[in-house]
Amino acid sequence: MTLIDALKNTENTLKCVGIDDYRFDSECLLIKAAAKTRRDVLCHGDDLLPEKDAELLTELTKRRALGEPLQYILGEWDFCEFTFNVGKGVLIPRPETEMLAENADLFLKNRKRAVVYDLCSGSGCIGITVKNRNPFADVYLVEKYPEALSYLRKNAERYDFPSENIIECDVLSGCPDLPKADLIISNPPYIRSEEISSLQREVGFEPKTALDGGKDGLLFYRAICDKWLKNCNKGGELLFECGDSQGESIREIFDGKVSSEILYDFNNIDRVVKIIV
Fold first, then answer.
1. The model's pTM
2. For the CA atoms of the chain, what is the radius of gyration?
3. Which of 23, 49, 101, 242 is the most exposed place for a label (fewest CB within 10 A)?
4. How far from 24 is each of 29, 34, 124, 167, CA to CA, in Å?
């Protein structure tokens, strides 16, 4: 079987089970199975695919056809200009979350030092990106779950992030003994509990603990307001990702204590809430 034939067979399989991006996914699976580049596939499509690689491609295709996220199958995914290890037990980095990193950069611009917390850090993609872009910042990654921590530590090693700044802690339990923060960033679980079962098939493979924000989706925002806000320096900021239409509710949680602003994405959907201390 040639590379092109293998690609077409994979596309047909994924298309038949309703994978929207079946062409892109098929190309990614072939590249992983055959240890090729996209250029190899496109320019040398008549090359034969070794039997061992064909067997691996069949296995990977079955996993994707059953709904397993492409990111888990590949074992890594891009966030901003970096690539992070991901897999079962950790939330997949998403493009919309890059707004958090971008707004963190705006806050940190022209500062000579700053302490940053990344709460519910997961893979560490946000905090590690912020640290790489702002080397002077003292960034702490806060995560509770062992599965997520294993990927976080792999990514920290990948980008020479200091291991002593990885904090194993339940955000809902309160702030441990850390230096006071100038910036707190978080992409916490914010899906309403009753909506979890109705999410798309791929999301069902991701850890519920990284998605479930309680009955109204606001559990973690309340906890951060009650237990972490007091550890943010005057003149500091908190930046949260949120779901569509949650912005005003989050602002109300912090109402009377600080000023706040909702930042919208390109689809004019609530995406980031900025709290100014």
1. 0.92
2. 21
3. 23
4. 9, 16, 26, 37
Q: What is the dihedral of CA 73, 77, 83, 86, to 10 degrees?
A: -60
- 257 pLDDT tier (thresholds 50, 70, 90): low
Tens-place pLDDT, residues 176-215? 899 999 999 999 999 999 999 898 889 999 999 999 999 9
Which residues sit opposite 237 in a β-bridge? 183, 276
Q: Which residues contact 145 (CB under 8 A, 6 or more apart)?
A: 89, 207, 209, 210
pLDDT in tens, 17-28: 999 999 999 999
Q: Which of 60, 64, 96 lies closest to 79 in space, CA to CA?
A: 96
- Are 261 and 276 spatial neighbours (Cβ–Cβ below 8 Å)? yes
CA diameter of the chain: 67
For residues 78, 84, 90, 92, the Cα torsion angle rounded to the nearest 10 degrees is 0
Backbone angles phi, psi at 203, to 5 degrees: -65, -30
The 8-class DSSP code of residue 49 comes to: P
Exposure of 128 in the CB half-sphere (CA atoms within 13 A): 28
CA atoms of 51 and 271, how far apart (whole Å): 46
- pLDDT category of residue 106 using cuts at 50, 70 and 90: very high
| Helical (H) or strand (E) element with 85 | strand 82-85
